[in-house]
Amino acid sequence: MTDASSAPRWPGSVALVLASSTGGVGQHVRSVARGLTAAGATVVVCGPAATEEQFDFTGVGARFEPVEIPASPTPADARAVAALRRALNSTAVDVVHAHGLRAGLVAVLARPAAPLVVTWHNAVLAGGLRGALSRLAERVVARGARVALGASADLVDRAAALGATEARLAPVAAPTLPTPRRRRAAVRAEFGVDAARPLIVSVGRLHPQKRYDLLIDAAARWRTRTPAPVVVIAGSGPAYLPLAARISAARAPVTLLGHRTDVADLLTGADLAVVTSDWEARQLFAQEALRAGVPLVATSVGGLPGLVGDAAVLVPPGDVDALDAAVRELLDDPERRAALSRLGAERAATWPTEADTVAALSALYAELAAQRSGPTAPDAGAPSTGHR
Q1: Nearest to 12 by CA among 381, 366, 259
Q2: Under CATH, domain 184-348 is a member of which superfamily?
Q3: What pTM value is reported for the model?
Q4: Which of 125, 147, 317, 377 is deepest in the core (most CB within 10 A)?
Q5: Would you say domain 4-173+352-373 falls under CATH 3.40.50.2000?
Q6: Which residues make Cβ contacts (< 8 Å) with residue 74, sequence separation at least 6?
């Protein structure tokens, strides 16, 4: 793993582009912006004003240019393309790096003069007209970017299959959580959980992809356990009202916490962490849970099996019976939970760090900038960011 102090310096300039985000993509862009500026680069972040308010890109040394790119396609996309074009024309950059399909599409349509990199963070799961439009956007983005980076191997394969000039694997490292501010007992007291009662934690955007309906349905079954677990879900998003209604109808012992900035504290108080998504690449909360030594139950989808290995319990997606059984077995087996806690911390120690991510991107940017500037060949010893 690369130490932050030894990360290669790249004194170039990059524009990081993102669409509306309240979670992992915004955190990743902030992490990259912080690392690049610390390594001597000039960073401009282009995205919705709300992302600057939440993630404070200027606070880590970047300049921010408001470009309103909504999470879903709208007629306002034409304005977003024009706004991004103006932002890029006002500042000469060596590379443009868009994060996510929505930002990637706007960046491709803006036709930047600098080489365009697009990181694919998510798979397209929607059906119907929206799914068809998203798959069309995938093709446009794959063919319009100089390099497509996939956060998991299946995304790399998808970009390559759609005609990407070059597709590489670029795992997204979860930012290191701050030191917990509260002790375990204090965190549990917030939710009325004593030492004998299990506390189950999940963190993520309240979106249908996360399948929190499964966790709620399983939790309703756990009411009959003695003592009954308490489940808390931290995050905000469009599925809040349907999930709240489901909790009420099922009388499930689940609390929706809304957006939280104390995930480290929540993990300190947790007995189990749960991920129920239909798809994930390298979900940040899964990384955070294993780093904190909290036993994890997660769905066997996307990049999660490769991320956690044998350090978590994997269940099929969409299977409430399997989720129920896995959680019950762990709650009844403290020795297994202790073993997973140890294995999780060991597994997490093998993952790329934020500094590794920044080092790989710096090498890629230097490579693209050298190709753009003329016949000078890029450094043959520069580390590869993945595979073609």
Answers
A1: 366
A2: Glycogen Phosphorylase B; (3.40.50.2000)
A3: 0.85
A4: 147
A5: yes
A6: none
